[in-house]
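Q: What would this complex look like in 3D?
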Amino acid sequence: MRVRLASRQLAANLSDADATVQSMPDASPAKWHLAHTTWFFETMVLKPVAAGYEVFDESFNFLFNSYYESVGERQPRPKRGFVTRPSLAEVLAYRDHVDRAMETLLESDLDGDLTDLIELGCHHEQQHQELLLTDILHLFSQSPLRPAFTDPEPISSEARETAPMTFLPFEGGIVEIGHDGSGFGFDCEGPRHRTLLEPYRLADRLVTNGEWIDFIEAGAYRDPMRWLSAGWADIKANGWTMPLYWEKRDGTYWSMTLRGFQPIDRAAPVTHISYYEADAFASWAGKRLPTEAEWENAAQGLPLSGNFASSGRLRPLPAEDLDAGPRQMFGDCWEWTQSAFLPYPRFKTAAGAVGEYNGKFMCGQFVLRGGSCATSEGHVRATYRNFFPPEARWQFSGLRLAEDG
Amino acid sequence: MRVRLASRQLAANLSDADATVQSMPDASPAKWHLAHTTWFFETMVLKPVAAGYEVFDESFNFLFNSYYESVGERQPRPKRGFVTRPSLAEVLAYRDHVDRAMETLLESDLDGDLTDLIELGCHHEQQHQELLLTDILHLFSQSPLRPAFTDPEPISSEARETAPMTFLPFEGGIVEIGHDGSGFGFDCEGPRHRTLLEPYRLADRLVTNGEWIDFIEAGAYRDPMRWLSAGWADIKANGWTMPLYWEKRDGTYWSMTLRGFQPIDRAAPVTHISYYEADAFASWAGKRLPTEAEWENAAQGLPLSGNFASSGRLRPLPAEDLDAGPRQMFGDCWEWTQSAFLPYPRFKTAAGAVGEYNGKFMCGQFVLRGGSCATSEGHVRATYRNFFPPEARWQFSGLRLAEDG
Amino acid sequence: MRVRLASRQLAANLSDADATVQSMPDASPAKWHLAHTTWFFETMVLKPVAAGYEVFDESFNFLFNSYYESVGERQPRPKRGFVTRPSLAEVLAYRDHVDRAMETLLESDLDGDLTDLIELGCHHEQQHQELLLTDILHLFSQSPLRPAFTDPEPISSEARETAPMTFLPFEGGIVEIGHDGSGFGFDCEGPRHRTLLEPYRLADRLVTNGEWIDFIEAGAYRDPMRWLSAGWADIKANGWTMPLYWEKRDGTYWSMTLRGFQPIDRAAPVTHISYYEADAFASWAGKRLPTEAEWENAAQGLPLSGNFASSGRLRPLPAEDLDAGPRQMFGDCWEWTQSAFLPYPRFKTAAGAVGEYNGKFMCGQFVLRGGSCATSEGHVRATYRNFFPPEARWQFSGLRLAEDG
Amino acid sequence: MRVRLASRQLAANLSDADATVQSMPDASPAKWHLAHTTWFFETMVLKPVAAGYEVFDESFNFLFNSYYESVGERQPRPKRGFVTRPSLAEVLAYRDHVDRAMETLLESDLDGDLTDLIELGCHHEQQHQELLLTDILHLFSQSPLRPAFTDPEPISSEARETAPMTFLPFEGGIVEIGHDGSGFGFDCEGPRHRTLLEPYRLADRLVTNGEWIDFIEAGAYRDPMRWLSAGWADIKANGWTMPLYWEKRDGTYWSMTLRGFQPIDRAAPVTHISYYEADAFASWAGKRLPTEAEWENAAQGLPLSGNFASSGRLRPLPAEDLDAGPRQMFGDCWEWTQSAFLPYPRFKTAAGAVGEYNGKFMCGQFVLRGGSCATSEGHVRATYRNFFPPEARWQFSGLRLAEDG
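A: Here is my prediction, written as structure tokens for the whole assembly.
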């Protein structure tokens, strides 16, 4: 259970208090992530099939169920941060208990359905590993002390040039996208199906912080003509003038990061932007966001290398990385697409509790593709469909431009 | 200007107070609809091109602009109901003034762009005619007296049988949808483009009130497993147990209508439901909603006959109407589709103020197709894309089922 | 029924729409005031005692009950503005119907309780006459056209000097305050009782607009040290920088009034201020607000002359009015006192519905004394206790300073 | 510094997480209470006068200032729970640092003003000790596990009879109340002054849980006629049907307490009620709440013995305690009075930061007298004026009845 160990390592930097507090309803306490992913194995795997398994604590079903209506009542989401007990230490003991039972189970002969469910549990845990990082970043950003989750790393002081953005052409036609069922994929990634694309062109790299500063300084946050109607309403209601976690001090842009409060690196990809901002930037640049099918079509066959959670830091594009294909597709930031999160043709919700996994969120969300510097290595693939509401900014979300071919 | 006259006729049943009050931020006062559609002609047509046109009242630009950021400041939407002056009579005088100037203008030689703009103004006015009706219904529903907008009409007392629902098969493949630019269409209806459909089947008629009562009585409003996550949250937060305007009294379902408070007609199409409810019903029935492309593909070539605003009343399907094609496609209720309102491939926003017409709403809304009993005759077509947020219920919105072929 | 006629005269300037709209939950539509005061006579007087009285419309009990829980359900207060029907004309017909029945009743022999109740109804109506004016002013202030309720009156262009404020000394000791039961008084004005005052001094006149401008320009609205904690929270939350209805344009202060948008008259009393602002001003000036007992002790025996609703306009103190007593005690603006609205010793709530008149509001409100330019003549007296929550600003509320003797 | 030690003892039962979380904006984290009281000594005493004092951490001024506008910016109150660092252990180290410096200072010759300030700091700390308990109770009540702060104590199973309530007569006349400046008192307790009382009678004991259950079961929470208007609005908006922390299970009333979830003891005083509930109970019982002057007049000269924080538990009245005077005046629960929290005659706000202590809260609050089972011993006196808004229920607040003499 290498995946399970990674969660523990993320918790190593956290105190009991760090792991307990919830800084907004969208975020969850680290302790909750650690326990909920454990609860998943206990509830979905051990309780149904592991003979003689002893439930660690009956009350945890109420505490650590997320949204599975079929599995019973649960602590209301905005009150997850009020559960000061069990402590972080007790949650880690819960993890040990469940991990030991899982190891025993894994030594026995498992049928395919069970193996699939365990694999789902591991991918589910990787999702929560990313959320644990984004939620801790949000929590730490709320403290005036701006604590760092990991040691700061010096930013190279030499000004780096970002290579100009190039648009790579793709032919249209009928293409296939979606997960074909071989290897792991969440239910919403399939079924694999044909779709028709018009010719299009896709930027070879992500939009950078430097380009975003140009957007800010062109007055874009004050010009309603650039914005979706709902976006402009949010901009005004929330007083947004730059990405989440950014501040301008004495003419310089700074940002709260997992490494503490840091000056903005102009060459690194911009992140912590909403769909509204991504869309407005694209409109301001005379381009548009790609659809998810355009993105996936371009991503198929690319190596899944990137800049993953082991780093937790957004790096600029290396100068030497000058091959002709799209770069920064995986492991930098999640890329907003212009596609709403909706079912693929012939999508069917799975039976039972895991059927609540994705289908019930197919309303009011946009798809993001790629994977970020907070995503676990091994958790990305070309068919992966992440999704968030258009106003969400606390994820490592950025953008890549596209245009009609 | 036959279209303009129709607005006036709608106002004939309204007092100055009826026409002034705004009963929720989503709705607008009737007076505002009457003036805003007039302002559109004055601002977009007369002021730029009509030599010697005298503006009726300079203050009306502030009062009756809807959301055109490019045309200046405006009365905040939730405060439209605080404008007690000008009175309804003055607004009607404003209409006369603008209509006379438009008539003079129409007698001259107009270039094509101008003709297009005037045509847009007429279709814009038809949209507001429908909103005037839905908004008045909402206002009257808020009064304990439940006034009727038009004379009640007796509901036939004989129990009518609704013919069983049949699913009509459609082949998949590459089809064309969208407006081709001949005749009028809103910008978002085009460009016409190819899309790929899998085989599917579409119900021959709308879901009825009687079928909806079965859904209610099966406990669907209390079962979270039926609902999109956001829908279930809304159901609980708002305490919804039946469509908007419905009430149950002594075991019988009643509803507020434009003809006052009336018992439900089981054979008529259900309406005043949200996207969430439409989706939940489809899930409960083991079916799904159609995509907008599926709907449009089925609608192409059908006669645009229906049951329009001249009636303002939802009627059951006539028993004799038993041909093999889809029925009730136009003029009964708007049909929720499972498609988010997003740009078609190669869609470009128009330049200038009319460019704010549709594009900036392409976020967070679902497409509805067809047209309702409150839609103006001549305002429907197969390519028409209406859109509302998933929680909206005050329109005449219903549903038709679909399934994979 | 001279009082009843006065209400009608106030309505003469209003259209059906003016009289119907509600511009905030605290305010009520003019039509509602006109009908509710009528409902009071119908419900409390005619229905119980007038033989053969025919109720004008059964539905009006639901529509026009204000807050009498004992008299049944009622239209929720924030939805009073959704009642477009009955029209203003019908409400006036309702008034005629009830007035005729009241005239018949008044020709008969009435017992004392009934006479008292009718007198209460007249005073109740006078209260609503004032509210009708303050509520119309609020409504008209929400319209960008800023309509005038009455004809504007030129403000004398010559700069007027305000006489310096003088503090009049009052000895302490045991004094009597409160209504002694002779003549009309609301229940909360009594019983008359002894209270102990320390020596104090009371300003001879009200604080003026000019003095208030000094307070603004000294930065008081930006200095938290001046404010009650709840007041400072409101100042910040609402962005208050001057009294309600004020605006600064090109260095000059203007205000929305019943006579339309007008430049501020520096010599007139300041009004439309909250308790928080009155308290902060007094603190800034090194003084305090008087208690209600101090005010009443000073007011006893003064003539009830003033500047009443017949004028509806705040006038400066006439220069010639230089006698030695306190001036502007009645009929300019309501004066905030530092006394919470609480029961006098031995106060008992009246039995029945009229018992809901005042007692149930004895929480969270401050007492105002005097009477304003919008108060009906004949409605003021030294014992009168008006009350509003500390944040209320839409009444004609101002202040008079006091200090310890 | 015995007072300082008591705070530490309260913290002994708390984990880092327990001490960090904030369960509502009205409450503060335990860690915050521990640090803020320390900050008070550091900021008000050590920094101004202790030569060579080294500030423990400069950032703590921002973190642990409560509401002193004059001492600079501060962490917004609703975000106090987001400060996971410093940890509880670091806050305790901060306490040690400041305590050592204070001990050094106390060995030197101090002038009277400084001694007064230090005494104020100790009383201030005692106030926060009580808040720490009430805030932890609120936090623990939000957790589905309902942890106990201290060990549960068995409730005697034998049914106890509560002696009937007796009303003790007090003569009216001019009495003196308020703090006379000898010994410690908060600024708002003075100056001592004369006030005039009418004859009155005061209950010899507090209202019990058993009597409150009668009130509940008489339907009082459903009868609007019993309630202040604002109280009834709160009752309905919040769905209150019993005191805070109470639940009814299988016909028995239970309550969350510092000793965990416990059955209600009918003989113990009722607590965790709002002013609205206290007032409604008194009205239902045909009595009224006492004024604060009536309460203080009765309390003068009584021994300050009670049932203090050492116990943290509300006990019934001992049967043997049958002397003729008022009982349970101190150390059971805070008793709501019908007096608004307003300045006494000739009250002056102190200069400097401590002047923000009480005066700025003199609006919208009611006075409570006595002291509760969570109050520190040595912190009560007859002149003590506690105050809370009428809707507050998370304090140990109860009531004693009064009536006119």
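A: To summarize the key features: The domain at 167-404 of chain A is CATH 3.90.1580.10 (paralog of FGE (formylglycine-generating enzyme)). The first strand of chain A starts at residue 167 and ends at 170.
Q: Very helpful, thank you.
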